[in-house]
Amino acid sequence: MTTGLVIERFDPSLATEADFVVCHRVMLASQVVDRPGEPPLPLAELVARMKRPMPGSGAVAYWLGRRGGEVVAFAQVCFLDEENSDIGLTDVRVHPAYRRQGIGVAMLRALLPELRIQARRVVECWEVVAGTAGQRWAEALGFRPVRVITRQVLVIADVDRRSWEVDVPAGYRLLRWRGSAPDGVVDSYAVARGAIHDAPLGESGYRWPEWSVPRVREKEAELRAQGLVQRVVVALHELSGTVAGFTELCTHPRRPDWGYQRDTAVLAAHRGAGLGRCVKAHMMRWLLVDCPALERIGTTTGAENAHMIRVNREMGYTALRSLVAVQQELTAVENRLATPRR
Ligand SMILES: CC(C)(COP(=O)(O)OP(=O)(O)OC[C@H]1O[C@@H](n2cnc3c(N)ncnc32)[C@H](O)[C@@H]1OP(=O)(O)O)[C@@H](O)C(=O)NCCC(=O)NCCS
């Protein structure tokens, strides 16, 4: 029953340490049940992310559900921007001890007015772990699966490092940088970044960024402002002097054991030469020297993107789980939840 449930907005800029601790407790309890095998998200990391959301999230709003003084649920919506400003990216988590009492639905209902105010057309959830309560809940509420995402993880200590000894294909050479693309290659780097558009997005409403030089500079600045260290390895086509492919990985000094593998793409004209594997292998060798405290790297890839998943496997990544992205029009969610169930 949702009797006694009080749902209120949570403002990280005004929150106390104790407020974050109770949010963290819900996240951890959910993680144990829904995402076993992943190291727990440290409290300090949760606080930092809530106070300063990751680049690409847009503005983020949070809600807490309390009952009898206990925090029993947590919800967040990322109001994605630019190409994706019609999407409200939503995550609802209920403490496992309080599930099947209508709290998840009540949390979703509570955040709908803000989605409407922020002019969102669709509600998407990307963090639904396949086969868990989250998937059954989403289906029961009329969400449809639009994309399956494979989450892979690389544990450096477990990998045979010989798999990172990869020759550079003839006709190419590698270039790497931290933080800011050299002026001499930034034009063709922006073009190469556009190759990510060939990566499948299923039926999600999400759109990849339209890359341009100003966009590259803007995104680099956002990562810097967040304290993230962005490393990029590109394969340069020697004949034309242009970027044929690249890989991008971020680390953060507050969590030196973790890396976030971001985009990797090769322009269509240069595919099939092994460049994806080559730039990723070089990135790993660079990280070994540059980030000795690094232990794990996480990445997510569309499940149908067999090439990228295979390259990752060759680098030593193992599949951790499948996530199902689900979607529903905001109007449909509003109609479905118009009448309280209990
Ligand atoms: C998904 C989640 C938020 C649901 O919270 P909840 O409070 O247990 O859900 P509700 O009580 O509101 O469930 C509403 C309906 O969803 C369906 N449902 C929810 N959990 C279910 C389960 N484990 N098995 C089958 N149906 C389920 C049922 O139809 C349920 O209605 P009923 O209990 O009257 O049969 C919770 O399981 C959770 O935190 N999971 C981890 C995070 C996640 O996956 N979030 C969803 C994506 S944003």
From TrEMBL:
Gene3D superfamilies: 3.40.630.30. Keywords: Acyltransferase, Transferase. InterPro entries: Acyl_CoA_acyltransferase (IPR016181), Bact_Acetyltransf (IPR050832), GNAT_dom (IPR000182). The keyword Cell cycle does not apply. Residues 5-165 form the N-acetyltransferase domain. It holds the Pfam family Acetyltransf_1. The keyword Transferase applies. PANTHER family: AMINOALKYLPHOSPHONATE N-ACETYLTRANSFERASE-RELATED-RELATED (PTHR43877). This is GNAT superfamily N-acetyltransferase. It comes from Amycolatopsis roodepoortensis.
